[in-house]
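Case 257 in the screening queue. Each case pairs one protein sequence with one candidate compound; here the compound is nicotinamide-adenine-dinucleotide. For every case the pipeline is the same: read the inputs, emit a complex structure as tokens, and attach any notable structural observations.

Predict complex for case 257.
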Amino acid sequence: MSLDQRIAVVTGSGSGIGRASALEFAIVGAKIVVADINLAGASETVERIVSQGGKAIAVRTDVADPESVRNLVSETIAAFGAVHILMNNAAIQINKTVEDTEVEEWNREMAVNVGGVFLTCKYFFPHLRKSKGNIINMSSVNGFFTEPMCAGYCATKAAIIGLTKAMAIDHGKEGIRVNCICPGYIDAGLAEGYFNVQPDPEAARNAAGKLHALWRIGRPEEVGRAAVFLASDAASFITGAAFTVDGGLSSGLPPQA
Ligand SMILES: NC(=O)c1ccc[n+]([C@@H]2O[C@H](COP(=O)([O-])OP(=O)(O)OC[C@H]3O[C@@H](n4cnc5c(N)ncnc54)[C@H](O)[C@@H]3O)[C@@H](O)[C@H]2O)c1
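Case 257 output:
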């Protein structure tokens, strides 16, 4: 699977799954726009890509802010002249019930997780139409089934599956594919935050591993390699898919010890 000379924009790639995906895209030849609200994290991702022989730029971006997203589009086109892959990975997770969630927290979570997908797609579509490119949105198995204490987050991940399918049918005839990835627990920032608010974080982490048929949580690069596949021509007839990368978490009850 080659992405040689393709230009990939990856939001939230200053850490975790986004960074790992950016690195995997670069390994197969893509040039990367590392877009993150955390510029230090984004710059570190760029350094890692460059040190492995790739090309990348960092653009500080708040995906919830239309002006910031329009700036991301301008910087991308100024640096590379086109965009072929848009990976919407940036997200936040409020680990609370609805009753305990502050109105400001709810609004920000919706604005980043769902609004961010809307804004980047809206402003990158003219360029994706030219390149017959594709979009990969980051959902979660929490888009299919929920867990305690992250109601708003689960709602955003379900919304992303719906938005993915809607954009796939609206833009398929233009040659644009739109898919989403639904990971299980992955050893990265948002899962870490969820474990840390449980009464016994280490026990929660161990228990989470055993929910998966493969008896462990996943690694960020395991999601990144699925993103490479979906972005590549090898996935040319795949659109509107909610692609699980979950070690069997959503397949049923895991084997017992
Ligand atoms: N870690 C998991 O177990 C897991 C499981 C399923 C799905 N996911 C999804 O994977 C994605 C990445 O999660 P992660 O665990 O790597 O988290 P992470 O916290 O390591 O990475 C998220 C990145 O998004 C950035 N970000 C936050 N708000 C932003 C904004 N407004 N604009 C731009 N960037 C912003 C952060 O700075 C950070 O670099 C998320 O969409 C998450 O829902 C994660």
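Case 257 observations:
- The chain has one domain: 7-189+217-248.
- Residues 11-12, 14-18, 36-38, 41, 61-64, 89-92, 112, 138, 140, 183, 185-186, 188-191 surround nicotinamide-adenine-dinucleotide (CB under 6 Å).
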